[in-house]
Amino acid sequence: LDPSSWRLRVDGLVERVLELSLEELRSRFAHHELVATLQCAGNRRAGFLAVRDIPGEAPWGPGAIGTAVWTGARLADVLAAAGIQENAEHVAFAGADVSEEADPPQAFGASVPRHKATAGEVVLAWSMNREPLPTVHGAPVRLVVPGYIGARSVKWLERITAQAEPSDSFFQAETYRLLPAEADPDAIVPGEGVALGAVAVNADILSPGEGTTVAPGPLGVSGYALAGDDRRIVRVDVSIDEGRTWRQADLRDQQSPWSWRLWEAEVDVAVGTTEIVARAWDSAAAAQPESAAHLWNPKGYVNNAWARISVSPDRSAARGDRTTSPGRRDTA
């Protein structure tokens, strides 16, 4: 999209329809910066494959997630300028990208409830990590909805519509839905299943990697944890005996209320294959469930089961500093 000719239309149940250029958006509204983590609804989908295959879906590991510094205008300010009406219970968004997955093909779309849209953390971002927003991440402007699945943070944003009902977009009414295990994803009707919004509490282990050979003795383990919407990560537990006993990980300071929380722990491993397990708790006292088998669904969404990796302690492995911290990843 050409930034000079790009326009954002704000319409629907508003008092004033707006047509904003990028320059108008930047000059008319206060700039807001926040650190936020975005997570794909299919993050950690690969953990479901040991339960049952999920044809046609990307086998994401723990990396379909990322944290960045976003700068832009608050959506709440733009909606206020348009005069959002009282009967507008939802705010819908449309991007420029057209998907052939829908029949007929349609632009990517989504919506969030009014209470989320008018919260101060939702941003129309033109900058990522204090640099111009890259094309691959949605330039010239994308939506950033902290605490919700990444699919609600529409890229290449072109239209905002205040409306009475949730979006009927293929990508909200049919695709990003949590279906029962026995459902046929190719035969669902619009509105079937549970619409995905706020992300569930989740955590994964980033270091050491699966199958790593390590020296016996103290071993540094590190990863990330994330809680959805306005909840916070308050604890991460690590176990090396299948959850019979746990030790609490050290939590790093959180960069913002909307970012992941990095954690570190040290465990003592003996010779032989050892499974390391981690689980997170959030401020609503919700914890990750134990088994992916209890969560399997035909689209492979919301795998927030305990994180598990296996390592192989071997006396021949070289010792070194094995407390490796996860770094920042650019979000999808």
Task: Name the CATH superfamily classification of the largest domain.
Answer: Oxidoreductase, molybdopterin-binding domain
* CATH class designation of the largest domain: Alpha Beta
Helix/strand/pairing category: mainly beta
Using DSSP, what is the number of strands?
Answer: 21
Main beta-sheet strand count, sense and barrel state? 5 strands, mixed
CATH topology of the largest domain: Sulfite Oxidase, Chain A, domain 2
Strand content is 35-45%
What is the total number of structural domains? 2
- Rg to the nearest angstrom? 21 Å
Tell me the strand order in the biggest sheet: 2-1-10-5-6
Oligomer: single chain
Global outline: globular
Q: Could you explain the architecture of this structure?
A:
The protein is mainly β. The chain folds into two domains: 7-195, Sulfite Oxidase, Chain A, domain 2; 202-313, Immunoglobulin-like. It is 8% helix and 37% strand. The protein has four helices and 21 strands. It has helices spanning 22-28, 75-82, 114-117, 170-175, and strands at 7-12, 18-21, 31-39, 65-74, 90-99, 106-113, 123-128, 131-132, 142-144, 157-163, 177-178, 194-195, 202-207, 213-214, 217-226, 233-239, 247-248, 250-251, 261-269, 274-282, 307-313. The protein has a five-stranded mixed β-sheet. Strands 3, 4, 7, 8 and 9 form a five-stranded antiparallel β-sheet that branches. Strands 14-21-20-16-17 form a five-stranded mixed β-sheet, with no helix packed on it. Strand 7 and strand 8 (131-132) form a beta hairpin. It is globular. The protein starts with 6 loop residues before the first strand and ends in a 19-residue tail after the last strand.
